[in-house]
Design a protein that fits this description.
By secondary structure, this protein is of the alpha/beta class. The protein is 30% helix and 18% strand. Strand 5 and strand 6 form a beta hairpin. Helix 2 crosses helix 3 and helix 4 packs parallel to helix 5. The longest helix has 14 residues. It is globular. The termini are close together.
Amino acid sequence: MASVRACPHCGSVRFVKDGHANGRQRFRCRETGCARTFNALTGTPLARLHMPEKHLENARLMAAGLSVRVTAERLGVSVPTAFKWRHRFLQAPLNQQPGTLSGLVETDETYILESFKGQRGGLPRPPKKRGTPGRTRGLGPDQIPVLVAREREMKGTLTARIPTRSAASIAPVLAGRVVPDAVLVSDSAKAYRKVAKALNVSLMQVPANAKHKTQGTLHINNANAYCSRLDGWLDRFHGVATKNIPNYLAWHRIIDREGNGLSAKRFLEAAIG
């Protein structure tokens, strides 16, 4: 399920096999001053999770994007256990974003309705039924913005929850990732002019009232399409707790990147990190 290349405690490559525990091969570090034991999952998000024989099946169900209740039923575990496994499996993918974005980099935002799903007390507003619209029309304060930056050619995609649709929120997310000779392509929002200036990159903006939104290379169709896929995929969960949005963005990045080639083994490898 996972290979061992070094001791997770000290980083030494001097280790030997040291029996089995709970069905897993254990190893012992031979480095002076360490000598600690470990297995293939030590130091990973899946360490110390019970019932490891069900983890591959859990990965298969997550690759299929099934709900936590269906997952719990098929695995024969409780709903809280399935929920715990879901978010432990998503800890490593949280940081699996593209290191660089090059070429034409389309940027756009989508919005997820603020949700306190699962929270039993201390709500800043009265609880409401599932499916109830937001408190305000349009892009009100209960709409949580999600930034999407997608390479047009390489298809590398960065997604991140941001506080506001402002340059101060967007620029830090893209800083260090958009290469100097890249070109940002965005809608007509003024924030992106400041973002491009802060990143010292070129910018092309689609006119707000263009008769045809696609004019040669001047479009953000790829980013728009990704936003639509993300929104449609999230619908199955009937609301995502705002605190868990980054986890679900990471989950969707794996599914969208791998497509039909996403196997249980590949998803488990991503979960192990």
